[in-house]
Amino acid sequence: MSNNQTNAAKNQTSILNDAIHKLDESMGGHAGGEFITGFMAFTLYMFMQIASIISRHMAVALNIPPDTTGIYFTKLFGARGLVSVIASIMTYLIKLFISEDNIILTLIVSSLMLISRTVFLFFLYVEKNRALYVYNVLIMDAMCVGLFQMTFYPLTADYVSAISLCFKISRLWIFVLQLIMDLAIYDKPMLIVKIHYWLAYILSFTSTGFWFYFCISRHNRGTHKRPKPTNVPKLTKDSEAPSQNTNDTQCVSVSEEGINPSSKDPESLEEKIRDSEPSFLTHLGNSFSPLMMCLVTLMMKNILFPGLLPYGLLERDKSHIVNMFITPVGLAGTSIVHGLKKNVASINRRWEWYWHFLWFLAIPPAIIFYKTLESLHPSSSSARSKIINNRTAVLVMALVFHFCHSLIESAGYLGVVSNVKYCNEVRERGRKMVSTNQLLGEITHFIFYKIAVGYNVTRISLGYHLPKFRPNHRMSRYNLCAYILRETFVRGFDDFIRDFKMNIRDYI
């Protein structure tokens, strides 16, 4: 009788262990990994996305003067960029000495990020100098995000399009929530801000828990699970080039080295492939075109948004609808790229020539960039009147810009991953290229936000601002252009120096 009970208990334990193992395999597999990394991406930038989308309500809730709203948020985004760049460089340098697969660092910094968001909620209830506290804590959050993202992207390179999509879905979530609150409690900006950030905090707490599970499960599988021969692409003796089924440029010919993949230890085969991976510079050359796709429209976007488009062209209350509707349009562009990744195999391996035609998507943003500057400094009053305080024109310009930008940027990030794959996987040096791509994006993001601050301060000092646009100078057009160009960089650099002196007090 006791033996039967013992056997029954063992069977139940075995069934439970099998169920746990299957759950672990499903969550660690492609679908489970895509869900967890997508959820983490969904919450990663949410605190800053809220500030971007509901900037009008935040400005009112924090008692920021209307004339300096654009400068406050431009400086906030720029300062976050600086801190994020410094933090990203720190992580990048640390990872030169540890493996890209190391999970200890990512678990530590993800915990710090959650702590910073807890502190933010606390200061949201402090009455005195609330705008200053919010500014400082959002910058602290940027430091944690910068530390974390350089560990996040290399570990999740296989899910890059899903990550980009979830970034946009995050903005869409905030957009829809804000639409509802605009209908219900539009005249209660502080309540709107608190609802947004409390929901974001709850989601961040949950995603951090999922991230811990993903990293620990991934580490355990990598430690205890031997690689299978079926994971290695078939390599032939008479072929220097890879099969069309591989995503590499020179996958090592194992048979030429005297190793038979069918009879040798698959760990030896995997080690041979790892050692033969192309150099970092080779990966850089292969992925240079999509790498630049990630940066070119980003440069224009950081100069235009939000200081010029919409706040430089529209009054603050009219700008709210622009900030709201750019969100679903950006999601549409990223969704197209994600659909291509799922359904078109050629975009997931070394790019063919025709994928580089995506560069044509940079033309509309370039035109909009030019027209925005032209409307602020027109050669005639008629040119300015078509856009200044014209909500429809500004909205169309913003929507077209964000659609093209989101499409080409998402395609660029996917292209970098596709072009650094070796034997169907993103390996150690490929992950380093993914990290480098992200770091370059952070540096570009910061530099061009500082240029935007310098330009906005110069523009306003010359009288090119709402409501009346009355220039207070008598310079010729050539001298004006030279003056603005010089002062943009001088004042942008000066603002960078004064960031350390907390001159944000001047604008609140």
Automatic annotation (TrEMBL):
This protein's record includes keyword tRNA-binding: no
The keyword ATP-binding appears for this protein: no
Keyword line: Membrane, Transmembrane, Transmembrane helix
Residues spanning the membrane: 35-55, 76-98, 104-126, 133-153, 197-214, 288-309, 321-341, 353-373, 394-416
Region feature (Disordered): 222-268
Record's compositionally biased regions (Polar residues): 241-253
Name of the protein in its database record: Uncharacterized protein
Species name: Theileria orientalis
